[in-house]
Design a protein that fits this description.
Helix content: over 70%
Number of strands: 0
Structural class: mainly alpha
Radius of gyration: 24 Å
Length: 79
């Protein structure tokens, strides 16, 4: 079974452009690598935060729908 890797080429080009600019500005490969690693960490944290917010919204909607359905069932049972 082959695993397909999906690559966001716009993001790859952006990171390459930023890394080339960092090397040009700092004149140090190690410092540029360190800054790029920090950028990758920040990118991962932001993606994780966005995912958590999205899933939280989905579960809040499901919980709200479930509570409304229970309320409707209780109202019909009381009648």
């Amino acid at each position: 079974m082959k695993v397909k890797i999906r690559v966001n080429w716009k993001k790859v080009l952006l990171f390459l452009f930023i890394s080339a600019g960092l090397i040009f500005l700092t004149h140090s490969l190690l410092m540029s690598i360190g800054i790029m690693l920090l950028l990758f960490v920040v990118d991962a944290l932001l993606a994780n935060y966005e995912y958590r917010q999205h899933t939280k919204a989905i579960f809040d909607d499901l919980r709200r729908e479930h509570e409304e359905a229970e309320q409707r069932n209780k109202e019909t049972d009381n009648k």
